[in-house]
Amino acid sequence: MFRGFTVIVGDPGTGKTTLSMRMAHERLTSGERVLWVSLYEGRDLFLEEASKLGYRLERVDFWEAVLVEPETFWGRLIDTVAETKPGLVVIDSVTPLVERAEGRSLLLNALYRTLRPAGIDVVMTLERDGPSFVEYIADNVIRLFLERTEEGVPERRMCVDKARTLPGGYCRQFDIIPGAGLLFFDELKPTPRPPVEVNTGTPLDELVGGAFLGTTLIYGPAGVGKTRLAVKIASFASRKYKVIYRTFAEEAWQIKERAKAYGADFDVMPVRIKPPTYGTHIYEFYRLLEEERPDLIISDGFDVEFKVYGEKAFEMNLRLFSALKEAGVALIGTMAKTHTLSNYVDNVLRIRKVNGQRRIEVVKSFRRPIRLSCALTEDLDCS
Protein backbone atom coordinates (compact mmCIF):
# COMPACT_ATOMS: atom_id res chain seq x y z
CA MET A 1 0.00 0.00 0.00
CA PHE A 2 1.48 3.32 -1.11
CA ARG A 3 1.46 6.10 1.47
CA GLY A 4 1.91 9.84 1.06
CA PHE A 5 1.57 11.49 -2.34
CA THR A 6 1.33 9.05 -5.26
CA VAL A 7 1.22 10.01 -8.93
CA ILE A 8 0.11 7.49 -11.57
CA VAL A 9 1.49 8.38 -15.00
CA GLY A 10 0.46 6.93 -18.34
CA ASP A 11 -1.12 7.41 -21.74
CA PRO A 12 -4.92 7.28 -22.11
CA GLY A 13 -6.16 3.70 -21.82
CA THR A 14 -3.24 2.36 -19.81
CA GLY A 15 -5.37 1.88 -16.67
CA LYS A 16 -4.70 4.95 -14.52
CA THR A 17 -8.32 5.35 -13.42
CA THR A 18 -8.75 1.60 -12.93
CA LEU A 19 -5.67 1.37 -10.69
CA SER A 20 -6.98 4.34 -8.71
CA MET A 21 -10.34 2.58 -8.35
CA ARG A 22 -8.58 -0.49 -7.01
CA MET A 23 -6.74 1.64 -4.45
CA ALA A 24 -9.99 3.32 -3.42
CA HIS A 25 -11.73 -0.05 -3.15
CA GLU A 26 -8.97 -1.38 -0.87
CA ARG A 27 -9.20 1.66 1.41
CA LEU A 28 -12.99 1.46 1.63
CA THR A 29 -12.74 -2.25 2.43
CA SER A 30 -10.36 -1.46 5.30
CA GLY A 31 -12.88 1.02 6.73
CA GLU A 32 -11.34 4.32 5.58
CA ARG A 33 -13.18 7.18 3.94
CA VAL A 34 -12.25 8.08 0.37
CA LEU A 35 -12.78 11.36 -1.45
CA TRP A 36 -12.82 10.91 -5.23
CA VAL A 37 -12.40 14.08 -7.29
CA SER A 38 -13.18 13.71 -10.99
CA LEU A 39 -12.39 16.36 -13.56
CA TYR A 40 -13.98 14.57 -16.50
CA GLU A 41 -16.97 12.39 -15.50
CA GLY A 42 -20.02 12.41 -13.24
CA ARG A 43 -20.82 10.15 -10.32
CA ASP A 44 -23.28 7.89 -12.17
CA LEU A 45 -20.84 7.08 -14.97
CA PHE A 46 -18.05 6.62 -12.44
CA LEU A 47 -20.06 4.10 -10.40
CA GLU A 48 -21.21 2.29 -13.54
CA GLU A 49 -17.65 1.81 -14.78
CA ALA A 50 -16.46 0.74 -11.33
CA SER A 51 -19.28 -1.80 -11.06
CA LYS A 52 -18.32 -3.39 -14.41
CA LEU A 53 -14.88 -4.02 -12.94
CA GLY A 54 -16.24 -5.50 -9.73
CA TYR A 55 -15.49 -2.47 -7.54
CA ARG A 56 -18.22 -1.29 -5.17
CA LEU A 57 -17.45 2.39 -4.69
CA GLU A 58 -20.87 3.73 -3.70
CA ARG A 59 -19.48 4.82 -0.33
CA VAL A 60 -16.87 7.19 -1.77
CA ASP A 61 -17.42 10.89 -1.26
CA PHE A 62 -17.61 12.00 -4.88
CA TRP A 63 -16.86 15.54 -6.05
CA GLU A 64 -17.65 16.23 -9.69
CA ALA A 65 -15.20 19.03 -10.47
CA VAL A 66 -15.66 19.04 -14.24
CA LEU A 67 -16.47 22.76 -14.52
CA VAL A 68 -14.37 24.04 -11.63
CA GLU A 69 -11.77 26.65 -12.60
CA PRO A 70 -8.16 25.66 -11.79
CA GLU A 71 -7.69 28.90 -9.81
CA THR A 72 -10.48 28.00 -7.36
CA PHE A 73 -10.05 24.22 -7.36
CA TRP A 74 -7.47 23.85 -4.59
CA GLY A 75 -9.31 26.09 -2.15
CA ARG A 76 -12.52 24.15 -2.67
CA LEU A 77 -10.61 20.87 -2.31
CA ILE A 78 -9.29 21.94 1.10
CA ASP A 79 -12.84 22.84 2.20
CA THR A 80 -14.17 19.47 0.97
CA VAL A 81 -11.39 17.59 2.76
CA ALA A 82 -12.17 19.43 5.99
CA GLU A 83 -15.82 18.43 5.62
CA THR A 84 -15.40 14.75 4.63
CA LYS A 85 -12.19 13.90 6.58
CA PRO A 86 -10.96 11.20 4.17
CA GLY A 87 -7.99 8.90 4.62
CA LEU A 88 -7.41 8.95 0.86
CA VAL A 89 -8.00 11.61 -1.78
CA VAL A 90 -8.00 10.61 -5.46
CA ILE A 91 -7.77 13.32 -8.13
CA ASP A 92 -8.48 12.03 -11.64
CA SER A 93 -6.86 13.74 -13.52
CA VAL A 94 -4.52 16.42 -12.18
CA THR A 95 -3.08 17.28 -15.62
CA PRO A 96 -5.26 20.35 -16.41
CA LEU A 97 -4.68 21.73 -12.90
CA VAL A 98 -0.89 21.91 -13.10
CA GLU A 99 -0.27 23.02 -16.67
CA ARG A 100 0.49 26.57 -15.50
CA ALA A 101 2.95 27.71 -12.84
CA GLU A 102 0.16 29.16 -10.70
CA GLY A 103 -1.58 25.78 -10.55
CA ARG A 104 1.63 24.03 -9.52
CA SER A 105 2.14 26.57 -6.74
CA LEU A 106 -1.40 26.00 -5.46
CA LEU A 107 -0.82 22.23 -5.51
CA LEU A 108 2.30 22.62 -3.36
CA ASN A 109 0.41 24.83 -0.93
CA ALA A 110 -2.48 22.35 -0.57
CA LEU A 111 -0.16 19.38 -0.26
CA TYR A 112 2.29 20.72 2.30
CA ARG A 113 0.01 22.95 4.36
CA THR A 114 -3.13 20.82 4.56
CA LEU A 115 -2.98 17.27 3.22
CA ARG A 116 0.40 16.12 4.54
CA PRO A 117 0.00 17.58 8.06
CA ALA A 118 -3.40 15.87 8.31
CA GLY A 119 -1.87 12.49 7.36
CA ILE A 120 -4.07 12.20 4.27
CA ASP A 121 -2.79 10.07 1.40
CA VAL A 122 -3.22 11.49 -2.09
CA VAL A 123 -3.36 9.70 -5.45
CA MET A 124 -3.30 11.74 -8.65
CA THR A 125 -3.42 10.55 -12.24
CA LEU A 126 -1.27 12.37 -14.79
CA GLU A 127 -0.94 12.08 -18.56
CA ARG A 128 2.46 10.84 -19.69
CA ASP A 129 3.38 14.18 -21.28
CA GLY A 130 2.24 16.13 -18.20
CA PRO A 131 4.54 18.38 -16.14
CA SER A 132 7.48 16.48 -14.62
CA PHE A 133 7.18 18.79 -11.61
CA VAL A 134 4.42 16.57 -10.20
CA GLU A 135 6.65 13.49 -10.37
CA TYR A 136 9.47 15.39 -8.69
CA ILE A 137 7.46 16.26 -5.58
CA ALA A 138 5.64 12.91 -5.35
CA ASP A 139 6.56 10.29 -2.76
CA ASN A 140 5.65 7.50 -5.16
CA VAL A 141 5.79 7.50 -8.96
CA ILE A 142 3.95 4.73 -10.80
CA ARG A 143 4.10 4.41 -14.59
CA LEU A 144 1.61 2.35 -16.58
CA PHE A 145 2.38 0.97 -20.03
CA LEU A 146 0.20 -0.70 -22.65
CA GLU A 147 1.75 -2.40 -25.66
CA ARG A 148 0.40 -4.97 -28.10
CA THR A 149 2.05 -7.95 -29.74
CA GLU A 150 1.81 -8.61 -33.47
CA GLU A 151 -1.20 -10.81 -32.73
CA GLY A 152 -2.91 -7.96 -30.84
CA VAL A 153 -2.37 -9.39 -27.36
CA PRO A 154 -2.32 -6.54 -24.80
CA GLU A 155 0.75 -6.38 -22.56
CA ARG A 156 0.19 -4.16 -19.54
CA ARG A 157 2.94 -3.26 -17.07
CA MET A 158 3.03 -1.22 -13.89
CA CYS A 159 6.50 0.10 -13.09
CA VAL A 160 7.27 1.73 -9.75
CA ASP A 161 10.01 4.28 -10.42
CA LYS A 162 10.06 5.76 -6.93
CA ALA A 163 8.61 4.74 -3.58
CA ARG A 164 9.37 6.42 -0.26
CA THR A 165 8.28 3.68 2.14
CA LEU A 166 8.59 0.66 -0.17
CA PRO A 167 11.27 -0.71 -2.51
CA GLY A 168 11.10 0.87 -5.97
CA GLY A 169 12.57 0.11 -9.36
CA TYR A 170 10.41 -2.88 -10.30
CA CYS A 171 7.63 -3.74 -12.77
CA ARG A 172 4.60 -6.03 -12.55
CA GLN A 173 2.43 -7.48 -15.30
CA PHE A 174 -1.30 -6.95 -15.02
CA ASP A 175 -4.51 -6.90 -16.98
CA ILE A 176 -7.95 -5.39 -16.53
CA ILE A 177 -10.57 -8.13 -16.20
CA PRO A 178 -14.34 -7.47 -16.37
CA GLY A 179 -15.79 -8.32 -12.98
CA ALA A 180 -12.37 -8.73 -11.35
CA GLY A 181 -10.81 -5.31 -11.95
CA LEU A 182 -7.10 -4.65 -12.24
CA LEU A 183 -5.35 -7.92 -11.55
CA PHE A 184 -1.61 -8.50 -11.18
CA PHE A 185 -0.58 -11.87 -12.56
CA ASP A 186 1.78 -12.52 -9.63
CA GLU A 187 -1.22 -12.34 -7.28
CA LEU A 188 -2.78 -15.43 -8.86
CA LYS A 189 -1.93 -18.33 -6.59
CA PRO A 190 -3.96 -21.55 -6.27
CA THR A 191 -4.54 -23.24 -2.93
CA PRO A 192 -1.75 -25.84 -2.53
CA ARG A 193 -2.66 -29.50 -2.16
CA PRO A 194 -0.87 -32.85 -2.63
CA PRO A 195 -0.61 -34.09 -6.22
CA VAL A 196 -3.34 -36.43 -7.44
CA GLU A 197 -2.33 -39.62 -9.26
CA VAL A 198 -4.99 -40.39 -11.85
CA ASN A 199 -5.26 -44.08 -12.62
CA THR A 200 -7.63 -44.29 -15.57
CA GLY A 201 -7.80 -48.07 -15.58
CA THR A 202 -6.78 -48.15 -19.25
CA PRO A 203 -3.58 -49.66 -20.68
CA LEU A 204 -2.40 -46.10 -21.34
CA ASP A 205 -1.51 -45.83 -17.65
CA GLU A 206 1.40 -48.16 -18.35
CA LEU A 207 2.97 -45.59 -20.68
CA VAL A 208 3.33 -43.07 -17.83
CA GLY A 209 4.54 -45.35 -15.05
CA GLY A 210 1.17 -46.66 -13.84
CA ALA A 211 -0.87 -43.45 -13.46
CA PHE A 212 -1.10 -39.94 -14.88
CA LEU A 213 0.69 -37.56 -12.54
CA GLY A 214 1.67 -33.96 -13.26
CA THR A 215 1.50 -32.62 -16.82
CA THR A 216 1.23 -34.82 -19.91
CA LEU A 217 1.26 -33.83 -23.59
CA ILE A 218 -0.19 -36.08 -26.27
CA TYR A 219 0.70 -34.84 -29.72
CA GLY A 220 0.30 -35.96 -33.30
CA PRO A 221 -1.01 -34.81 -36.69
CA ALA A 222 -4.64 -33.94 -37.36
CA GLY A 223 -6.97 -36.91 -37.79
CA VAL A 224 -4.82 -39.36 -35.85
CA GLY A 225 -7.34 -39.71 -33.00
CA LYS A 226 -6.14 -37.34 -30.26
CA THR A 227 -9.60 -36.07 -29.34
CA ARG A 228 -11.13 -39.55 -29.34
CA LEU A 229 -8.32 -40.72 -27.08
CA ALA A 230 -8.74 -37.72 -24.77
CA VAL A 231 -12.48 -38.41 -24.45
CA LYS A 232 -11.80 -42.05 -23.62
CA ILE A 233 -9.24 -41.12 -20.95
CA ALA A 234 -11.64 -38.56 -19.46
CA SER A 235 -14.51 -41.06 -19.51
CA PHE A 236 -12.63 -43.77 -17.64
CA ALA A 237 -11.00 -41.31 -15.22
CA SER A 238 -14.34 -39.66 -14.38
CA ARG A 239 -15.49 -42.87 -12.70
CA LYS A 240 -13.13 -42.17 -9.79
CA TYR A 241 -11.93 -38.58 -10.19
CA LYS A 242 -13.32 -35.13 -10.85
CA VAL A 243 -12.55 -34.34 -14.49
CA ILE A 244 -12.86 -31.03 -16.33
CA TYR A 245 -12.65 -31.29 -20.11
CA ARG A 246 -11.60 -28.06 -21.89
CA THR A 247 -12.23 -28.20 -25.63
CA PHE A 248 -10.64 -25.57 -27.85
CA ALA A 249 -12.05 -26.72 -31.20
CA GLU A 250 -15.22 -28.76 -30.77
CA GLU A 251 -18.50 -27.91 -29.09
CA ALA A 252 -19.43 -29.27 -25.68
CA TRP A 253 -22.26 -31.39 -27.07
CA GLN A 254 -19.85 -33.13 -29.47
CA ILE A 255 -17.57 -34.17 -26.61
CA LYS A 256 -20.50 -35.30 -24.48
CA GLU A 257 -21.91 -37.30 -27.37
CA ARG A 258 -18.62 -39.18 -27.71
CA ALA A 259 -18.48 -39.76 -23.96
CA LYS A 260 -21.88 -41.49 -24.09
CA ALA A 261 -20.21 -44.45 -25.81
CA TYR A 262 -18.41 -45.08 -22.50
CA GLY A 263 -21.41 -44.29 -20.32
CA ALA A 264 -19.61 -41.22 -18.98
CA ASP A 265 -20.77 -37.74 -18.08
CA PHE A 266 -18.20 -35.13 -17.04
CA ASP A 267 -17.94 -31.34 -17.13
CA VAL A 268 -17.07 -29.97 -20.57
CA MET A 269 -15.97 -26.36 -21.00
CA PRO A 270 -15.68 -24.89 -24.52
CA VAL A 271 -12.77 -22.43 -24.62
CA ARG A 272 -13.02 -19.65 -27.19
CA ILE A 273 -10.14 -17.19 -27.15
CA LYS A 274 -9.26 -13.91 -28.88
CA PRO A 275 -6.12 -11.75 -28.56
CA PRO A 276 -7.72 -9.17 -26.18
CA THR A 277 -8.80 -11.92 -23.76
CA TYR A 278 -5.27 -13.06 -22.84
CA GLY A 279 -5.47 -11.91 -19.22
CA THR A 280 -9.04 -13.13 -18.83
CA HIS A 281 -7.98 -16.56 -20.11
CA ILE A 282 -5.30 -16.81 -17.41
CA TYR A 283 -7.65 -15.54 -14.70
CA GLU A 284 -10.42 -17.99 -15.66
CA PHE A 285 -7.98 -20.91 -15.46
CA TYR A 286 -6.94 -19.98 -11.92
CA ARG A 287 -10.58 -19.51 -10.97
CA LEU A 288 -11.32 -22.98 -12.38
CA LEU A 289 -8.66 -24.48 -10.12
CA GLU A 290 -10.03 -22.71 -7.05
CA GLU A 291 -13.76 -23.10 -7.58
CA GLU A 292 -13.99 -26.54 -9.18
CA ARG A 293 -11.03 -28.27 -7.47
CA PRO A 294 -10.61 -30.87 -10.26
CA ASP A 295 -8.33 -33.88 -10.05
CA LEU A 296 -7.71 -33.98 -13.80
CA ILE A 297 -7.98 -31.34 -16.52
CA ILE A 298 -8.08 -32.33 -20.17
CA SER A 299 -7.08 -29.49 -22.52
CA ASP A 300 -7.97 -30.78 -25.96
CA GLY A 301 -6.43 -28.94 -28.91
CA PHE A 302 -4.87 -26.19 -26.82
CA ASP A 303 -2.27 -25.39 -29.48
CA VAL A 304 -4.97 -22.95 -30.64
CA GLU A 305 -3.47 -20.69 -27.97
CA PHE A 306 -0.27 -20.43 -30.01
CA LYS A 307 -2.20 -19.44 -33.13
CA VAL A 308 -4.09 -16.73 -31.26
CA TYR A 309 -1.55 -15.49 -28.71
CA GLY A 310 1.71 -16.19 -30.54
CA GLU A 311 4.80 -16.28 -28.32
CA LYS A 312 2.75 -15.09 -25.34
CA ALA A 313 1.10 -18.54 -25.28
CA PHE A 314 4.41 -20.12 -24.27
CA GLU A 315 4.81 -17.74 -21.34
CA MET A 316 1.18 -18.28 -20.36
CA ASN A 317 1.42 -22.08 -20.38
CA LEU A 318 4.52 -22.09 -18.20
CA ARG A 319 2.54 -20.02 -15.69
CA LEU A 320 -0.42 -22.41 -15.86
CA PHE A 321 1.79 -25.52 -15.56
CA SER A 322 3.25 -24.07 -12.38
CA ALA A 323 -0.25 -23.41 -11.02
CA LEU A 324 -1.31 -26.98 -11.79
CA LYS A 325 1.64 -28.41 -9.88
CA GLU A 326 0.93 -26.20 -6.88
CA ALA A 327 -2.75 -27.17 -6.94
CA GLY A 328 -1.88 -30.87 -7.31
CA VAL A 329 -3.99 -31.21 -10.47
CA ALA A 330 -3.04 -33.57 -13.29
CA LEU A 331 -3.19 -32.23 -16.85
CA ILE A 332 -3.46 -34.09 -20.14
CA GLY A 333 -3.21 -31.80 -23.14
CA THR A 334 -3.50 -32.67 -26.82
CA MET A 335 -1.68 -30.75 -29.56
CA ALA A 336 -0.62 -31.14 -33.17
CA LYS A 337 2.94 -30.22 -32.15
CA THR A 338 4.56 -29.46 -28.82
CA HIS A 339 5.71 -25.84 -29.43
CA THR A 340 8.81 -26.64 -27.27
CA LEU A 341 6.55 -27.23 -24.25
CA SER A 342 7.89 -30.79 -24.07
CA ASN A 343 10.87 -29.48 -22.09
CA TYR A 344 8.57 -28.21 -19.34
CA VAL A 345 6.08 -31.05 -18.84
CA ASP A 346 6.43 -34.38 -17.06
CA ASN A 347 5.30 -36.77 -19.79
CA VAL A 348 5.16 -36.61 -23.58
CA LEU A 349 3.32 -39.19 -25.70
CA ARG A 350 3.26 -39.20 -29.49
CA ILE A 351 0.54 -40.68 -31.71
CA ARG A 352 1.40 -41.42 -35.30
CA LYS A 353 0.56 -43.83 -38.07
CA VAL A 354 3.14 -46.48 -38.91
CA ASN A 355 2.35 -48.59 -41.97
CA GLY A 356 -1.27 -47.55 -41.72
CA GLN A 357 -1.59 -48.45 -38.03
CA ARG A 358 -1.89 -45.99 -35.17
CA ARG A 359 0.81 -46.25 -32.54
CA ILE A 360 1.31 -44.31 -29.33
CA GLU A 361 4.80 -44.12 -27.91
CA VAL A 362 6.63 -42.61 -24.98
CA VAL A 363 8.83 -39.65 -25.88
CA LYS A 364 9.39 -38.56 -22.29
CA SER A 365 8.32 -39.87 -18.89
CA PHE A 366 9.48 -38.65 -15.49
CA ARG A 367 8.66 -42.10 -14.08
CA ARG A 368 9.82 -45.35 -15.61
CA PRO A 369 7.11 -46.51 -18.04
CA ILE A 370 5.88 -50.10 -17.84
CA ARG A 371 5.81 -50.20 -21.63
CA LEU A 372 7.33 -47.82 -24.18
CA SER A 373 4.73 -48.02 -26.94
CA CYS A 374 1.69 -49.86 -28.18
CA ALA A 375 -0.48 -50.21 -31.24
CA LEU A 376 -3.90 -48.62 -30.90
CA THR A 377 -6.94 -50.62 -31.91
CA GLU A 378 -9.99 -49.07 -33.54
CA ASP A 379 -11.41 -48.60 -30.02
CA LEU A 380 -8.13 -46.92 -28.99
CA ASP A 381 -7.04 -49.73 -26.70
CA CYS A 382 -3.42 -50.82 -26.51
CA SER A 383 -2.84 -54.11 -28.28
UniProtKB/TrEMBL annotation:
InterPro entries: AAA+_ATPase, KaiC-like_dom, P-loop_NTPase. Pfam families: ATPase. Residues 2-155, 212-355 form the AAA+ ATPase domain. Keywords: ATP-binding, Nucleotide-binding. One of its GO terms (molecular function) is ATP binding. Gene3D superfamilies: P-loop containing nucleotide triphosphate hydrolases. SMART domains: AAA (SM00382). This is RecA-superfamily ATPase.
